[in-house]
Amino acid sequence: MDSRNGSVSETPLDAEIESFFDSAPPLKDSAGIIKKLKEFIEYNSTPPGKGSPRRVVCVTSGGTTVPLEQRCVRYIDNFSSGHRGATSTEYFIKAGYAVIFLYRRGTFQPYCQSLPEDPLLECFECSEDSTIQVRQPHTEAVKRAVSDHHAAIAGGHLLKLPFTTIFEYLQILQSIAMSMKDLGSLAVFYLAAAVSDFYVPWKSMAEHKIQSASGPLDMRLVQVPKMLSALKKEWAPMAFCISFKLETDSKILLEKAEMALKKYRMHMVVANELSTRKEEVTVVTGNEKILVCRDKTQADSDVEEPLIELIVGRHSAYVKDSDL
Amino acid sequence: MDSRNGSVSETPLDAEIESFFDSAPPLKDSAGIIKKLKEFIEYNSTPPGKGSPRRVVCVTSGGTTVPLEQRCVRYIDNFSSGHRGATSTEYFIKAGYAVIFLYRRGTFQPYCQSLPEDPLLECFECSEDSTIQVRQPHTEAVKRAVSDHHAAIAGGHLLKLPFTTIFEYLQILQSIAMSMKDLGSLAVFYLAAAVSDFYVPWKSMAEHKIQSASGPLDMRLVQVPKMLSALKKEWAPMAFCISFKLETDSKILLEKAEMALKKYRMHMVVANELSTRKEEVTVVTGNEKILVCRDKTQADSDVEEPLIELIVGRHSAYVKDSDL
Q1: What keywords were assigned to this record (chains A, B) (predicted)?
Q2: How do residues B275-309 score in pLDDT, each as one tens digit?
């Protein structure tokens, strides 16, 4: 049976995943990450006073890299600005969720969307008495970024964990999922990161920089095992799971989103096309296809606001059902 | 004759370069870039008052990407923080040069070296009367970044041009070189960017996202034509040229640096090994190998300070020789 065509046979996938993790370079500060996760989840499960436990969502954001050499000079990267994940994080926090933001280093951060590319050098100036001040047109954007961001961190509602490689991403995702297991149906995974499909297994990788003098470069990359299955089956089986499908070819997009929904038993798959992804997405569930558009009557509206509203509604119904 | 082994036959290389540029996607805002270059070089060639023309150095910094798909989701990237180029830019400006800083989007910027990874969110806070202020330990670093950077831009000594892909990088580098041609020996190229050796020719590239369902991915990449030859022979033949050689294997480093010096007729090749590149480099010239180390008695010293001092000295001698 071909494990790539839907009906996955159990053992081969598990073995693939085990071999991926076994061969990956060890994650730096793994113990520190697990400690932070434990504290964050405990704090939000038993909030001060008589509040009920917060729902916790893991938002993944930005693209993963695949190193081509062990002492890494070259790597394959997946394009993703991290805009979707960062904006969605803001709406989840607004809706009362605690967010574990697993993001690619250097990508967009929550509350910073309306800032220019290089905010430090573009938004500030040195006054004559040599104090640093915000330049006029940016005052509100800078205030919002700094104060909302600090409020979310200080309130214990936002935990940020950075990654770069596919190895780091999947190792940290596994730690997050296993830490969130006990939250049951209160846990949500919102997997917006652009995750590499192909990688070079660490052990078969060139140790040194690949030399360019010897003609064209032929590379063979193998498929990254599909971790969504493990997430759903073992790491956090009760969690509400949303994955993303990005294509540049709209003709195959919905078909591929439906395949992903069934194959990995997601609750929702958000289908988006590269060129229109900031205007609209289609949310595919077991029995619906829901088109979600940004409010085009408002210049600064975004598609994440109605998308997170829809997800929060569906998640609430899921939590209620699970309690019965 | 094998064009990869040193003795380059003329026509094949020129044809390769022509075909690279012909097949590249057109550069956005090419006219705007050329206009900025023209103004910057004119301003520094005829400074206000009776000053003599400034020397102009083009510093390239950060890594180039190679798209694997035309509507780009995946690409191969070259690791480079841009630290070397950004720091060197500061020392060149201090030494009286005007700098054209050709940098990869998102990499280190001049005057920002001592700031944390996410300066906006880490260095600022919102006070009780809701003004934005710098957090204590970062005050000096932020002041320096903002005021020195603005002074360099406002004084007309720093022109920043960003790139992402190998196509953009080489197209802009060509425009810069041709704009600097008339500066003769006053022009310097300090080529610290990590430039891709291999690329997928635009026309043979997949239009849509590569599908992952069909087994392992085999890729064939071809060599990027060696533009240093064209730079030296045609674009700006009188310029003083410094290129960089980075290897992870110290055993082959100096040998490869010497080959590059001869093959591309550089004035200097800076040889650096990945793991020690912040401590020391070896400058290879026609008849010397000069080890340049940072001052280890100073905690915050860097290797760029003595390196730029050495280069400025050699460039001065070169300008003098050319005037004879």
Answers
A1: Coenzyme A biosynthesis
A2: 899 999 999 999 999 999 999 999 889 999 999 99
